[in-house]
């Protein structure tokens, strides 16, 4: 095996156990304990969902705290990240995510993206010229109507009154007034960063595919899908409702595409650009990537696949660490991984594995060093 001394760690979070930053730190600790002469660089990554702002901050962006409206209307503390070049990273889950709901409360028809719009407005106030809107982990299915309302849009019913918050209220919308939309948006590049390419409505739409995860019953799904279809007809005649990414995060993708002129890009590709992956990977002999579960979803735009593809393009070898491995060797090869190391190889019990993910990661990283670092 060729000598490997330069290692880049580009790991995503282990959901429910460790943040991307914590994963990278643990892997670095284990690698250096086993191979102290190696040169190790950590670049935590994200694909637009939970942890996207943290990854940007770890890469040198400034964390900007803001109090915004949570998914059920109560104020929540959120943050966006601002770079020196005027790029802002806004993570929808910070304002409108499932983690912002009270414990045990799900309200699929009532939750709003208004707070996400407030985060976007705060980024504009800070002078952002490019805004990366990372979507994922949302509690909402309102088509981005709340987000647009916070930015100055008005959605009216037959009596000329603003409709209420949430996707369910969109069943009453008859007019979309965008005349009050924040003028700064016309001069701001908005990038929709998502790892899903679903349309807004239909059997693969926002309500049908993701509504049940947010507590939607079959009746809720049907009502929300119909309301989103009506909303799309009112907003732009449904022109962009079937575009890839329109169904992301309960349809906030559609709102961004139709009203903000956003461009849709796979989340991990956007974030690798924003985080400076190309610069970091230059000269790396080995890239260690990873996420909580390597499974079928990994093959469809998740962080590990994106990192592996980008790293291989620079001639680096790539291995992965994960909590759980549910892919055969041929699928790993297809993604661009030479090997994957799962925590369950050391601790088969899932609960104990999640509870002790940090120390287990250090042990796994030592195995990586033994196998790949000379």
From TrEMBL:
Q: Which InterPro entries match?
A: Glyc_kinase_flavodox-like_fold (IPR018193), Glycerate_kinase (IPR004381), Glycerate_kinase_RE-like (IPR018197), Glycerate_kinase_sf (IPR036129)
Q: Name one GO biological process term.
A: organic acid phosphorylation
Highest taxon of the source?
A: Bacteria
> Do you know which Pfam families this protein is assigned to?
Gly_kinase (PF02595)
A single MF term (Gene Ontology): glycerate kinase activity
Is Acetylation a UniProt keyword of this protein? Answer: no
Keyword Transferase part of the UniProt annotation:
yes
Which keywords fit this entry according to its UniProt record? Kinase, Transferase
| Family, per entry | Belongs to the glycerate kinase type-1 family.
| Name by which UniProt lists this protein | Glycerate kinase
Q: Which organism is it from?
A: Streptomyces mashuensis
């Amino acid at each position: 095996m060729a000598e490997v001394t330069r290692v880049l760690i580009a790991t995503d979070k282990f959901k429910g156990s460790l943040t991307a930053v914590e994963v990278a730190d643990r892997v670095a600790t284990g690698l250096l304990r086993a191979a102290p002469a190696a040169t190790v660089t950590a670049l935590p990554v994200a694909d637009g969902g939970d942890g996207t702002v943290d990854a940007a901050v770890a890469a040198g962006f400034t964390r900007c705290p803001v109090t915004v409206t949570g998914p059920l209307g109560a104020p929540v503390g959120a943050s966006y990240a601002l770079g020196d070049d005027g790029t802002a990273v806004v993570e929808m889950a910070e304002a409108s995510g499932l983690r912002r709901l009270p414990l045990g409360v799900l309200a699929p028809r009532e939750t709003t993206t208004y707070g996400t719009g407030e985060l976007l407005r705060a980024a504009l106030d800070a002078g952002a010229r490019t805004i990366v809107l990372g979507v994922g982990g949302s509690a909402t299915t309102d088509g981005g109507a709340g987000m647009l309302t916070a930015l100055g849009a008005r959605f009216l019913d037959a009596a000329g009154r603003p409709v209420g918050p949430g996707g369910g209220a969109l069943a009453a919308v008859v007019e979309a007034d965008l005349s009050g939309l924040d003028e700064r948006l016309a001069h701001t590049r908005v990038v929709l960063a998502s790892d899903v390419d679903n349309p807004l409505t239909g059997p693969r739409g926002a309500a049908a595919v993701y509504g049940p995860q947010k507590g939607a019953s079959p009746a809720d799904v049907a009502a929300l899908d119909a309301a989103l279809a009506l909303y799309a007809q009112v907003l732009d005649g449904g022109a962009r409702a079937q575009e890839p990414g329109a169904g992301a995060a309960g349809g906030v993708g559609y709102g961004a595409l139709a009203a903000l002129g956003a461009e849709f890009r796979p989340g991990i590709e956007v974030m690798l650009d924003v985080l400076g992956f190309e610069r970091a990977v230059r000269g790396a002999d080995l890239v260690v990537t990873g996420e909580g579960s390597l499974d079928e979803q990994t093959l469809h735009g998740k962080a590990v696949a994106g990192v592996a593809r980008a790293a291989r393009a620079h001639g680096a070898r790539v291995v992965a660490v994960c909590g759980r491995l549910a892919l055969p060797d041929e699928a790993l090869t297809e993604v661009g991984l030479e090997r994957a190391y799962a925590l369950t190889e050391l601790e088969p019990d899932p609960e104990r594995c999640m509870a002790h993910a940090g120390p287990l990661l250090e042990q796994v990283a030592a195995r990586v060093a033994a196998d790949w670092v000379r």
